[in-house]
Amino acid sequence: MPETIDLTILETLDFDDDGFMTDANDWTPAIGKAIAAALELELTERHWDVINFSRAEFAEHGDAPSLRKITKVGGVPTKELYVLFPGGPAKLAAQIAGLPKPTGCI
Amino acid sequence: MKTLLILGAGTGGTMVANKMSQMLDMQEWKIIMVDRDETHYYQPGFLFIPFGIYGPNDVVKPKRSFFPSNVDFIYSDIEMIEPEKNRVKLTKNNQVINYDQLVIATGSHIHPEETEGMLDGGGWQKNIFDFYSLDGTTKLSRFLKFWKGGRLVLNVAEMPIKCPVAPLEFLFLADWWFTERGMRDKVEIVYATPLDGAFTKPRASSVLGDILTQKGINIETNFNIGSVDAGKNKIKSYDEREIDYDLLVTIPTNMGSDVIERSGMGDELNFVPTDKHTLQTQKHENVWVIGDAGNVPASKAGSVAHFMLDVVIENILRAIEGLEPLPEFDGHANCYIESGFEKGILIDFNYDVEPLPGKFPLPGFGPFSLLQESHANHWGKMAFRWIYWNILLKGGEMPFESQMTMAGKWS
Ligand SMILES: Cc1cc2nc3c(=O)[nH]c(=O)nc-3n(C[C@H](O)[C@H](O)[C@H](O)COP(=O)(O)OP(=O)(O)OC[C@H]3O[C@@H](n4cnc5c(N)ncnc54)[C@H](O)[C@@H]3O)c2cc1C
Question: What's the whole-model pTM score?
Answer without folding.
Answer: 0.93
